[in-house]
Amino acid sequence: MTRRLSLRLRLTLIFLFLAIVAWGASSFVAWKQTTDNVDELFDTQQMLFAKRLIALDINELTAPERMARTPKKLKHGHIDDDVLTFAVYTTDGKMVLHDGDNGQDIPYSYRREGFDNGHLNGDDDLWRFVWLTSPDGRYRVVVGQEWEYREDMALAIVAGQLAPWLIALPLMFLLLIVMLHRELKPLKKLTQALRVRAPESAEPLSPKGVPSEVRPLVEALNQLFSRTHAMMVRERRFTSDAAHELRSPLAALKVQTEVAQLSNDDPLARKKALIQLDTGIDRATRLVEQLLTLSRLDSLDNLQDVSRLSLEEVLQSAVMDIYHPAREAEIDVRLHVNAPDVTRTGQPLLLSLLARNLLDNAVRYSPRGSVIEVTLNADGFTVKDNGPGVAPAVLGRIGERFYRPPGQAVTGSGLGLSIVRRIALLHGMTVTFDNAPEGGFTVAVRW
């Protein structure tokens, strides 16, 4: 697996690369602009000097004359002999005056007026010349300057401008390293906090000092930790509840199995033990199914695969599902639809499970010959039986997990109404439990 460079090193290298590119680009632009400005300045200087020479009375010069040679070094100064040089010719190419240095080596040219490039006699260096003809047409004046001098001048100007930045670049580089270390320090603290964090901890990470670009990551991690902690709590509770609730039915199953094994000589006792064993298996199976259902419901934060459902169809389906168990218990289940066009957005399987659990609970705890009435209204539906109801003292605990009112003859796990409450909460509904005034137990689901 390829190991990536650290963020600090990558940022440093990126800054260094950008600084070098920017410095190189600015150097090139500065060089071009400076050379253009220097060329314009010296061209103007050459032209002005040539015009001053032409303004002299050259007609008095009857023989070639030259000025004194310029010394290389002067007190308090330094003179370059290639800054400017000049010569004066007659139109037939006879030199009548030069500057005493390089002017005597300027070759005569009878080409057009203006600027031209060329070489001195016996020299390979490129020079810049400007040619002008006197007003009377008898003389030609040439003023020259070496191109290398111009380039050196432009280079000196550019170097003077960019050298401070080149010196400041290492300082900026060191300052960048210090600033990156300071700015990335909160990330190192965050890394350390994550490294020593307990797996089950629900304490959120502190966003203090964290850059704004990283703060959404910290908030997302806190949300993840919260969800993970809630999931671990649910799993622990599920494990604890399952271990506690399954202990009794499994112990009963073991006892009935032992009774059946010891009843080889008593067919009646053996048959009774097998019947109770079958009943215990059904009870354990139902308990496991309800535990798994409740565990899945607890892990849901929002519903998926939702659709618009007709509550009348949901209740009709639940009544049809409970029809045969109710008939065996000699219980009549009646559906009253006061609002036939009521629809809700929900998960079809969960809403069907809610209705079936309510009807199953009513059938299981109602005496034989009872009537269960399911009534659909515009703002909810109710399931009412005419059984004994529950004591007012325990009415507030109905719907708690694994809670069953004392004195119940029917076996159960105390999870059915808990599942109803969780499904209703996921659908934005409320569930209330109450004793009916005329007797019986009523469950109202509102929205």
TrEMBL record:
InterPro entries: 2CSK_N, HAMP_dom, HATPase_C_sf, HATPase_dom, His_kinase_dom, HisK_dim/P_dom, HisK_dim/P_sf, QseC. Keywords: ATP-binding, Cell inner membrane, Cell membrane, Kinase, Membrane, Nucleotide-binding, Phosphoprotein, Transferase, Transmembrane, Transmembrane helix, Two-component regulatory system. Gene3D superfamilies: 1.10.287.130, Histidine kinase-like ATPase, C-terminal domain, Sensor protein qsec. Signal peptide: none annotated. It comes from Intestinirhabdus alba. SMART domains: HATPase_c, HisKA. Residues 241-447 form the Histidine kinase domain. This is Sensor protein QseC. PROSITE patterns: HAMP, HIS_KIN. It is found in: Cell inner membrane. It catalyses: ATP + protein L-histidine = ADP + protein N-phospho-L-histidine.
